Every structure is written in C-alpha cells, then in structure tokens.
Amino acid sequence: MHAMIRFLYLLIAFLFCIGCSHREPEHFTHEVLNRMTPVKNQGESQTCWIYAMLAAIETEHLSWGDSVNLSPYYIEKKAMRKVETPAPRWVFMLGATYTPQEFARSVCAPDEYIALTSNDEEPYNQEVDIDLPDNWMHDRFYNIPMDSLLAKTERAVRQHHGVCWESERHAMAIVGIAHDDKGQKYFIMKNSWGTDRPHQGLDYLSFEDFREETLAIEMTKKAYGLP
C-alpha cells in the first residue's frame, strides 16, 4: 500500500511537470541567444532548480570569456542527501587543486547574486519569504512589481547575463529572447530534460506566461543594476 501511494505521488509530480509545457508557434526568430554549455538531463531526479541555477552561472561565466561546465552531483549530494555517487573531495582545474567549497567560491562569490520575486500581497522593495514547502530554508527574495521584474530580466538577458527562472513546478535558465511571426516575445529557456525533445533542449516561455507563472528569478547584482 505504501509503495502504491509513493507511486501515485510520483505520477502526480510527473504530470505537473508535463503541464509546464506550453502550446507554441511553429516558428521563432531569435533576437538574442547567449552562450551556454550543452543541455543536461536531470533524469528522474527532482533537482531542476540545481540544473537551472548552475546553467545560469555557466552562461554568466561564458559571457566573460571564462569557460566552465558545472556538475550538479556535488550539490545533489549535499542538498538532497540521497545521491549514491560519492561527492568529490578535490577539484582539479588548470593545474590547481581546490576543495569543492573553494571551487564553488571561485565561480560564484558570496552575495554575487540577488534573488527576486513579485508578490503584490507583500510590500515592494524589501525582502520577503516565499511561503511554499520548497522554500524550507526560508530564503529571502527581494520583492518588486511584475513590470519591473520582467523589464529587469529582459535587460539582463539582452546584456548576456545568466538568469535562473523558477515557477512553482519547474526551474530553467533563461538564455535568450525570441519572437514569433505575430511579434509576441518569448524568453528562450534552457531546459534540463535532455535534447530528445523539440528545439533540442530549449523551450520558449512567452512574456505573458512569464507574468503568470514566475515565482522567482536569480541573477547577478551587476545584471540587476547594483554596483
């Protein structure tokens, strides 16, 4: 009985993820497509947020001319505590040896990123807690109006910054901007469901759906416009 209940929960979660897909036009014109590492596949793991954030960091570094392709397994090991693959003790790069913590600080400095949200039921221009089970660490997000959040995100992408997008059901990195034949704008999303799908691992999220579905955005403070 317990096994059946667990199966039903997994089935519901899978159907929710399928529900993230949007009906799309047949043709898109890319306005901006930022550099990115190859599309990865999260498989059956529930760790899209790890893949999305690492993909955003990768794109950010690639925009600087720095090449980095990050593995999600160490973060899965620490955050989920369920991954059987042992976490690495050392990271070797360009003749240097790092601990995983040292390497992490070399690619993402403390306080380099800002976490954003838009909730009209909370005061704007201050940090708020997103009251959802997934935010079990009670991380704080800077709350701004949706018009501002959309504009800040579009500006960051056009300036070639890496951006992590999260909804209540899924997370992806934003790697570009496109429009369809009617002129409607879309964010180009790097998904973590592999390349055996239309658009070879990229998805298209309309600006309209961005307004309706966005739960949180992460970008560097420089991308946001802070010193």
Brief account:
The chain has seven helices and eleven strands. It is an alpha+beta fold and 227 residues long.
Describe it for me?
With 227 residues, this protein is an alpha+beta fold. Helix content is 32%, strand content 24%. The chain has 7 helices and 11 strands. The chain has helices spanning 2-18, 48-63, 73-79, 100-107, 146-158, 207-213, 221-224; strands at 28-33, 91-93, 96-98, 113-117, 126-129, 140-143, 163-166, 171-180, 185-190, 202-206, 216-220. Strands 1, 4, 5, 6, 7, 8, 9, 10 and 11 form a 9-stranded mixed beta sheet that branches. A two-stranded antiparallel ribbon has the order 2-3. Strand 7 (163-166) and strand 8 (171-180) form a beta hairpin. The longest helix has 17 residues, at 2-18. The protein is globular, with a radius of gyration of 18 Å.
Strand-pairing-aware structural class:
alpha+beta
Low-confidence stretches: 1-21
Biggest sheet: strands, sense, closure?
Answer: 9 strands, mixed
The rounded Rg comes to 18 Å
Q: What average pLDDT do the residues reach?
A: 84
Report, as a whole number of angstroms, the end-to-end distance. Answer: 56 Å
Summed up, the helix count is: 7
Q: What gross morphology would you assign?
A: globular
**Percent strand:** 15-25%
